[in-house]
Write a structure and sequence with these properties.
Chain A: Keywords: Cell inner membrane, Cell membrane, Membrane, Peptide transport, Protein transport, Transmembrane, Transmembrane helix, Transport. The complex is a heterodimer of chains A (about 300) and B (about 350). With about 300 residues, chain A is an all-alpha fold. Chain A contains eleven helices and no strands. In chain A, about 70% of the residues lie in helices and about 0% in strands. Helix content of chain B is about 35%, strand content about 20%. The chains are: A mainly alpha (about 300), B alpha/beta (about 350).
Amino acid sequence: MAVTDPTATPLAAPARPDKGRSLWTDARRRFFRNKAAVVALVVLVLIALFAFFGGLVARYDRETVDFTLMGVNARNGGPSLATGHYFGVDDSGRDLYARTVQGTRLSLMIGLVGSLVAVLVGTLYGAISGYIGGRTDGVMMRIVDILLSIPFMFVLILMLVMFGRSLLMLFIGIGLTSWLGMARIARGQTLSIKNKEFVEAAIATGVKRSAIILRHVVPNLLGVVIVYATLLIPDMIIYESFISFLGLGVQEPNTSLGALISQGARQILSGGEAAWQLWFPLGFFVATLFAFYFVGDGLRDALDPKDR
Amino acid sequence: MTDASVIDRSAARVAGAPILQVDDLRVTFDVPLRGAWPWTPPRKLHAVGGISFDLRPGEVLGVVGESGSGKSTLARAIVGTVPSTGRIRFDGQDLGRLSPEERRARRRDIQMIFQDPLAALNPRMTVGDIIAEPLRTHFPQTSRAEARTRVSELMERVGLLPNLQNRYPHEFSGGQCQRIGIARALILRPKLLICDEPVSALDVSVQAQVVNLLRELRRELGIAMIFIAHDLSVVRHISDRILVMYLGRLMEMAEARQVVEQPKHPYTQFLISSVPIPDPALEKARPRPVLEGDLPSPLSPPSGCVFRTRCPKAKPRCAEVPPPPYDVGPGHVATCHYWQEPTPMVADAGAVIVESEAQA
């Protein structure tokens, strides 16, 4: 065999293992080339810093009522650096800055918890259902269909009314619904992945079923899952805001962006003039949603380059 | 359909205890009817319909047949990734009788190489992890360092730079990916290697390198192989014996030389006469018979002999009685009622090849 062999690499090179360029590295590079997504990510980081560390610069806490400003906030309680009420005070005389910080934090947490549950439960549920297939798949997916057909908004409202309004109830309610869509998406992807030859190679090698799902199926699902999760976060935030807007969400003195927007809107509707009470929480709300959607969009382009 | 006594006589001639005994292997898929009620019985697709053969340790059995003839399904049935009926004895053990856990443990002796080299590698794993996976699976106590050393040795052996361990499959060419697949299949030193069209997705020049690599490995390690291809010219370079399949049935099986030089079954004769000869004069002079028609649907295979719809010498009897595997020579079986009669157009198919090789 004197034939030179171009696919056989020469053995003269140094034996130091060199670094591979994984699909994640490629995706990261594509993501950082997308300007809108990077700007959105920066905005998101700033909002997160505001939500988690903004309290350090607040001069008042969210529940202390400034009686001198109560009822006259439209005249005397406007946003001002001098008084320390950076965002002004609400109609009860409470510092709006501290309340916005806390509301943003709660909204972000609702979004993160919702999508975390979706990623953990939904991905595994969908991957297992799709990989096992057959009757198991049928039963598992019908359960999802049944749960999806329940109007969860009403169920959640009933739960909040029956068991009392609490943060825990809200998290449970959000967690219960968020994974359903993810399970369907993960299952659909699994169906196409499980017919790939590398899965067959793993079966032929004798890899255990659980290891195939965790090592071969789930990592190949993650691209889609991450995109869906980032797009799910704003949905969860809207969901919570809607509940809070109805007055059923978080309880005083806790607040969320939805509750703040609700109060601001009510105050304007009843003839109040403290417009900042609506604009500040609304601004953070809109900015957060926009940023999440842009990041999600950028991630989709980065992780799924074929779709462009 | 299979005449067991015919098979047994040919098996008796094989020296040494066979490592793999396949007996009347059948693979049937359910094809659900579109739009039918859920309780309507599905149609049956007979992908493999009763194949029997033996394989000695270190022997290479080539399996040829056109697309859709059930070659890959046969391989998958032996590996156990599709359910089958019939008996597969490996190393004297009936694989069908093992519990799922025992079967899983047994897989370390039977490894497989796939047709599409890139698709057979998980894109999210590094090459080193891919090659080490069988080791991690069957010997979980292997230390990381030891696994890395083994992987390096093996990568070097199959012609890859060991320092590419941390790279990902998409950074390699098709030929290199196939070498990675071969390394993965060899890391457990299996007793049987099943190659499912390992070169058909590769360039012709790379094909030769991979086939040569497999030949070398076989000589060094003495692994028994089942080598599947639709291209007879590739198969005959590596195989000791060749099994010709058509529509899931065995058509002919014999020593590689016998099949190429004295094919008895009309289908094999057509296959041989379609192998190109690297001599323009001979190539031009010889008749080029073309096999008419298409492969019949395996959902409704022809009655009797499955090849009769395209066979130039089909007679009424072919439609009625499925031919048993006739013993047509030493270790040579052909499933044709009229194997003794010359086939029109292709009678001397093997002779031309012998002649061209004599000249070369």
